[in-house]
Amino acid sequence: MSRSVWKLPFSEISSPSLALLRKAGRRAPSPTSNDGRGEHKTKIWSRRSTVLPQFIGGSFLVYNGKIFIPVKVSEEMTGHKFGEFATTRKRPTHKLSKRKQTRKK
Question: Which intervals of the chain are annotated as region Disordered (predicted)?
Fold first, then answer.
């Protein structure tokens, strides 16, 4: 069931955080960045927040329950939730048997 039209999209990211995003382009250059421009990454614990059009081009660190996953927002991501881009589960890797390992070499 989708959210009512009269309600705005849900986002727990406060307006001061949005102001920081806008200022990110005018920050002093950091020695670690390649292009000479300091990149501001906002940490987000709320995976249920909707990606709004104001976030396009911004960099975020989305918490997956253990670590922060870097997410760069593009136009296609608007309307989705931040949690969709930071998986909480590890992909399974199956061990090869010793016979198969020797054949591959």
Answer: 21-42, 85-105
Q: What pLDDT digit, counting tens, does each position of 69-98 carry?
A: 999 999 998 889 999 999 899 888 888 777
- Please state, rounded to an integer, the average pLDDT across all residues of the chain: 77
Q: Which residues contact 18 (CB under 8 A, 6 or more apart)?
A: 54
> Could you tell me which residues come within 8 angstroms of residue 104 by beta carbon, excluding any fewer than 6 positions away?
96
**Domains along the chain with CATH numbers:** 15-88 (3.30.860.10)
Work out the burial of residue 82: count CB atoms within 10 Å of its CB; fewer than 13 is exposed, 13-18 middle, 19 or more buried. Answer: buried
DSSP secondary structure letter of residue 88? -
Residue (of 75, 44, 85, 74) closest to 62 by Cα position: 44
Work out the percent of the chain whose per-residue pLDDT is above 90: 21
| Contact status, residue 86 vs residue 50, Cβ threshold 8 Å | no
